[in-house]
Amino acid sequence: MGANRHAIYEEEWMAYVLEVNSSRNRKSWKDFISLVAIPAVVALCLGSTGGAAQANELTIGVPNAIPCLDPACNNSQYERSVKSQLHLALTSVNQDEQLVPQLATSWENPAPTEWVFTLRDGVTFENGTPITAETVKANFDRYRDRSATAKIAGSWLADIQSSVASIEAIDDSTVKFTLTRPWTEFAARLASLPIIDLTWVAEGNDATKGANASGPYRLVSFDPTSAIVLEANPAYYGEPPAYSKVTYRVLTSPAARLTAAQAHEVDVVLALDPQDLAALKGDSALKVGAVESSRNYFIWYNTSRPPFDNQDIRLALNYAVNKAAITGSLMDGMTSPSKGQVLNEPYPGFNTDLKPFSFDKAKAKELLASGGQPNGFKMTLSYPSGAYPGIDLIVQAVAAQLGDVGVNVDLQPMTLANWVSMLQGDASKATDATVAALAPADTQDVGMLKFFASSYTMNKSIDPKYDELFAALLKAETQEEHAKIVKELTQRQHDNAQLLFLFPTPLTYAINKSVDMKIPSNGMIRAYDASPAK
């Protein structure tokens, strides 16, 4: 089975876990609980209501480096945000997270394995080269070529490489994709695969560090660990962006992001620690808050060993953890307990019939007894320390609550590299459970649900019935069939307690009130979507 597993780098979540600096000193969970009860009084000496930027300029603070501008690169949502403004894709997802046309004006799915896209006329790269169906075909031939993209893509293009059989340029404005299987979400997947000028690349230009832009912005300068500067692209076919110059400033530590927001050095800043937001709420120049992201915290069981191969034990732990208390304190009420599934509202297949597991210590103890562990047991719980917002505090809270029902948790913090190595390895060498927060690049059902199939590298929680349903999902030929199977999958995952469901991670932000910008749950922060406040 191992030979068929997808590589760990298949999804952009890997880049995301680098967003929060792991070296920051953090208080223990008990210390933090005592602190959150004390009203914070923060005196901000900078009272200006203006933004960091000059007129018609915008500065956005992002939490991790943006190392690659080539759309083939495995990437974070912040890197995709920059690339999507330099390069156009066939489709796009707008601020309201709706699929909309971009390079393609329309598309159809005439057969389960056929998709036909009609291209927009007159679109060019900034050097004047037109974008035609042949341009699109050449790009997807490259995406499909494992040898051409292996060094920069990992296997994040694995679904394209295994599922796209061929691409045909029918004429200059029509391109046809023939797939190896039905793929009801195919048009949405293409939103994360922009088209670049491969002729420009063939002339010796490096697409990882430069761009011949077709989008609303073109590249001015590229320093992946410091700042990426863009300016309005005069060759863009559409409405010019509201801001003529944009700087994406890389702020890798929570402290740096907080300081930049307090000093009004940035107009928009993302991924602030929940406890840091209190320091900004008194600033009248800022809009501070969070949206529920498409990324979900959960604890993955290792079902290759007892007692985690027992359904009653897995259910017991779900009832033993008071998720509402954790979200209300450590996450400052910015998110809420998961509805007993890994999908939440941003996903098309979110199962509204499912409810959160209630906090019920008596029921947890009853299930522990019926599962053969009346006196509790010991378990190891690994996590990448500092890798996700609030994770060090969250795991301490979870461990304390499991201890209340007799489950003695040995917390095993790891560096990110060691954590990944452990999960890529054999289940027999992995810990009993681990904490993770995953999300696919496209906020689509299949992208999230495939993490929990046996074929996925990290997954040590194996359920043959889930695998059977997931295989059927990949063959769904209609949206109706797709929706039906997704509902069955989420119901199965809930009833079988494949995971200990926690809560969606909040996407925190501070925005200067001089800027009008909506933060979408997928974390795509595009300057093109912003405008001066009216």
UniProtKB/TrEMBL annotation:
- Record localization: Periplasm
GO biological process, alphabetically ordered: peptide transport
Output the superkingdom of the source species: Bacteria
Q: Does the keyword Membrane apply?
A: yes
Please list the GO terms describing molecular function.
peptide transmembrane transporter activity
Q: Which Gene3D superfamilies match?
A: Dipeptide-binding Protein, Domain 1 (3.90.76.10), Dipeptide-binding Protein, Domain 3 (3.10.105.10), Periplasmic binding protein-like II (3.40.190.10)
Keyword Transmembrane assigned to the entry: answer is: yes
The entry's keywords: Membrane, Transmembrane, Transmembrane helix
Q: Which residues form the signal peptide?
A: none
| PANTHER family hit by this protein | PERIPLASMIC BINDING COMPONENT OF ABC TRANSPORTER
Q: What is this protein called?
A: Solute-binding protein family 5 domain-containing protein
Q: Which organism is it from?
A: Acuticoccus mangrovi
